[in-house]
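Pilot study result, target chain (198 residues):
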Amino acid sequence: MNREVLLISESTSEQVASYVDAIESASDRVAASLCFDNLAYAEFMGHEPDIIIAEIESNARSKLSILVELIKRFNIPIILFDPNSTQDSMQIAVKSGICVYISDTFQHQRYSQIADLAVTRYQYHQSLHTELEETRHQLEERKVVERAKGVLMREKNIPEDQAYRLMQRSAMENNLTLGQVANNILRVANSLKSNGLN
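Predicted structure:
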């Protein structure tokens, strides 16, 4: 699989070494092993991991807030092991975008499956986010097209279907999208209005 892993743990050095063995046995590579106290230096150490694995043993709320910042910084899958899980910490973790939340310590035997699940969930949520953004863009573009169509209907005293065809023709002739044509129409109309010419 050859994923670069950033490991964050509060466990003993012996336990961390066993985690590294499990991760590297699954053909992934631990790029760095850090604790929460020196996590702030991760960004400055040139780490660009493919996945983050974190284990929390105490003070979950403050450490979850650090993980939220990591999600913003790296935008990659995060797996969290929390043996002292509470309903509160679970809700914070899920809402913050952590892909897999395990109410237990690091799972040596199941690491590969858990990591695969985290990546799959991450990719799924990313695709949903992309679809949502595309839908929002389409809705915004539709609103702009409707406004521009109204400007043409008013200025040229033409019906709606004719205004739409004019915009379509302009888009094809100038190799533009309908949204770009609509924005150009509104820009000109606003400019004329601000100059008292409309």
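One observation from the pilot: The chain has six helices and five strands. A full batch analysis is planned for the follow-on phase.
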